[in-house]
Design a protein that fits this description.
The complex is a heterodimer of chains A (136) and B (442). Chain A has 136 residues and is α+β, with helices and mostly antiparallel strands. Chain A folds into two domains: 3-69, VC0802-like (2-Layer Sandwich); 71-135, ACT domain (Alpha-Beta Plaits), CATH 3.30.70.260. In chain A, 30% of the residues lie in helices and 36% in strands. Chain A is built from four helices and seven strands. In chain A, strands 1, 2, 3, 4, 5, 6 and 7 form a seven-stranded antiparallel sheet that branches. Chain B folds into two domains: 3-336, Rossmann fold (3-Layer(aba) Sandwich); 342-438, 2-Layer Sandwich (GMP Synthetase, Chain A, domain 3). The termini of chain B are far apart. Chain B is of the alpha/beta class. In chain B, α7 (113-129) packs across α8. In chain B, the strands form five sheets. Chain B has a nine-stranded mixed sheet with strand order 4-3-5-6-7-8-9-14-13, with helices on both faces. In chain B, strands 10-11-12-15 form a four-stranded antiparallel sheet, with helices on one face. Chain B contains 13 helices and 21 strands. Classes of the chains: A alpha+beta (136), B alpha/beta (442). Chains A and B meet through β1, β3 and β4 of A and α13 and β20 of B. Bound molecules: zinc ion. Zinc ion binds next to loops of chain B.
């Protein structure tokens, strides 16, 4: 289970993000979700794509700094209360979330320390866990 | 002994390079006295200066007397641009070179046929101590043109019996192709451009280990030790730096031998060196760090007496393990006029370079920016990250940044902003690397 996220170092300058997205487009890599965060000086672009290995190697070949991490990914039914259900379940299991964001469909990802443990806890709540092959 | 015989032995001119200190000093004094007389007789500028100081060439009996002569600064060359300091009619000058300098007019130097010959001789001795041998195939990555580096090394390498590949600066892929196709064994470049060739080669899948290249001759800019060792490791070559400046001749003033890797042998048969206190001008004892002052010993075209290089170094006359007895200067890491004053504190860019060299995760490429937008001087160090130093966590990246800033503050005694930038975003240049941009308005 779990999905692979690519984090890319980016300076806060015009055109940096488009250089990255243009490269992925050229390689026919589909972005399934992303988040951009910055500290004012530099940013980290976080990407969930359909072919993470290929994306990582082509980004690295183009000189980008890339790191891959496993994230917890799950489906949130589009109805009131489900996000609360998920985060409450994680809080009960003392799982802390570093960050999270939504992907295509009603998928969300969370950065947690122990992905497998979090998945176990959420399966108990009947939450559907998403893995990399669901994103293709 | 002819050049072929000289080139075939391990030391180019052992009679001088391995002579006793007394013999070397004796030769230098004799040449210095001739040189003072030549400058006095042929160049108004020196005659006026010596007259004003109440010194005649005949008064120079020893080195102490010579040290009383006024120092010559770059302004003298600028003020007398273009030909005011030439000692011979222009029809005896067979070449000129110029250095652009960062401000104002360039400075121009001229060489007689004999000057060109002496220069070639210095280069031959210098490259031989760097491990170049006749039959080497030497590829030039300096630009030819008014800059002394290209032609200076070119004629010296040819003189030693190397096959010259005058590729000139620029077009990195073409350089790589030539290294491969022509079986280049020696690369002449600035260290930053050599690094660029190395990186581009790696990206294109060039196998440096299998390449014929074995020697790097670096000049044109100071070479940080970390950069040099990185190039040696990645390109599988031996790199030596050499030192020189257009005003006194060009490259060939001093160079590394293969034994003493952090110092450079001065071509003492062609240059008399002194180290002075840059503030007072007083000559410092051997071994003390100060500003290097050079006097070329045989220069006919544009003689120079006690030229202030503004380069800070120290010199030792302790014999070297390579067998040479010629004096060795420490690598010039900073110049007295490179000093930055940040909120009242003196900072040398080379100090920053040294700190960064010890930071795991920082590449050898950096850039400095000084501004006073906030009303106070602010020094920003832009630093390229190495791939392994990047993590997905802002907290970790921030702590890396703060750790570098703290280390810098500890050494420089002034606080510094550190900014992390993408790999490759700091420009690699062919000529002198401009590490510094000073945008202060005051
Ligand atoms: Zn030596």
């Amino acid at each position: 289970m779990s999905v692979s996220q690519l984090s890319v170092f980016a300076e806060n300058q015009p055109g940096r993000l488009s250089r990255l997205t243009a490269l992925l487009e050229r390689e026919a890599i589909s972005i399934r979700g992303f988040a951009v965060a910055d500290t004012g000086d530099f940013g980290i672009v976080r990407l969930i794509v359909d072919e993470p290995k290929k994306a990582q190697s082509c980004l690295q070949a183009a000189g980008f700094l890339v790191q891959a991490n496993d994230l917890l990914c799950l489906e949130l039914p589009d109805a009131p209360g489900f996000l609360n259900l998920v985060v409450s379940a994680m809080a009960d299991a003392e799982i802390s979330v570093e960050y999270g964001y939504s992907l295509v469909s009603t998928y969300v990802v969370f950065k947690v320390l122990d992905v497998a443990f979090a998945e176990q806890q959420l399966l108990k709540q009947d939450i559907r866990i998403i893995n990399q092959s669901d994103l293709v | 002994m002819n050049i072929q015989q000289r080139a075939a032995q391990p030391i180019f001119n052992p009679k001088f390079e391995c002579a006793s200190r007394d013999e070397i000093r004796c030769f230098q004094l004799q040449e210095l006295r001739k040189q003072v007389a030549w400058a006095y007789e042929k160049v108004d500028y020196y005659r006026q200066n010596l007259d004003a100081a109440g010194i005649e060439p005949g008064d120079i009996k020893g080195f102490e007397d010579f040290s009383k002569l006024p120092l010559t600064d770059k302004t003298a060359l600028r003020d007398n641009y273009p030909y005011g300091l030439f000692a011979v009619p222009l029809d005896q000058i067979i070449r000129i070179h110029a250095s652009s300098g960062t401000t104002g007019k360039p400075i121009v130097v001229g060489y007689t046929r004999q000057d060109v010959e002496e220069w070639r001789y210095c280069i031959m001795a210098m490259i031989q101590q760097a491990g170049v041998v006749p039959g080497d195939r030497a590829q030039m990555a300096f630009g030819y043109g008014m800059f002394t580096g290209g032609f200076g090394l070119h004629y010296g390498l040819e003189g030693l019996g190397c096959m010259m590949i005058p590729a000139s600066a620029g077009n990195t892929e073409r350089h790589l192709m030539m290294i491969e196709d022509y079986g280049t064994t020696v690369l002449v470049a600035t260290p930053s451009y050599a690094m660029h060739i190395c990186e581009v080669g790696e990206e294109l899948g060039f196998d440096w280990q299998k390449s014929t290249l074995r020697v790097g001759l670096f000049g044109g800019e100071p070479c940080p030790p970390k950069l040099k060792s990185e190039i040696e490791k990645r390109m599988y070559i031996t790199c030596t730096d050499n030192y020189g400046l257009t005003e006194v001749m060009g490259p060939g003033v001093s160079g590394e031998c293969l034994t003493s890797r952090d110092q450079q042998h001065i071509m003492e048969d062609h240059f008399y060196w002194e180290v002075i206190d840059p503030e007072s001008g007083a000559v410092l004892p051997e071994g003390a760090e100060g500003e290097l002052v050079l006097t070329p010993l045989q220069k006919q075209g544009v003689p120079l007496l006690r030229y202030r290089t503004h380069d800070l170094t120290s010199v030792t006359t302790v014999p070297c393990g390579c067998g040479r007895t010629t004096a060795r200067m420490n690598k010039v890491r900073h110049r007295s006029d490179d000093m930055l004053i940040i909120r009242g504190t003196n900072v040398y860019p080379s100090q920053i370079e040294d700190v960064l060299a010890d930071v795991e995760g920082a590449s050898a490429h950096y850039r400095l920016l000084v501004d006073d937008e906030t009303g106070l001087d602010r020094l920003t160090v832009m630093l390229e990250l190495l791939p392994f130093a990047f993590t997905d966590s802002f907290a970790e990246m921030e702590s890396f940044r703060v750790q570098v800033a703290d280390k810098l503050k500890g050494v420089l005694q002034v606080s510094v902003e550190v900014k992390l930038v993408e790999p490759g975003s700091i420009e690699r240049t062919m000529g002198k690397t401009q590490h510094l941009e000073d945008k202060r308005k005051r």
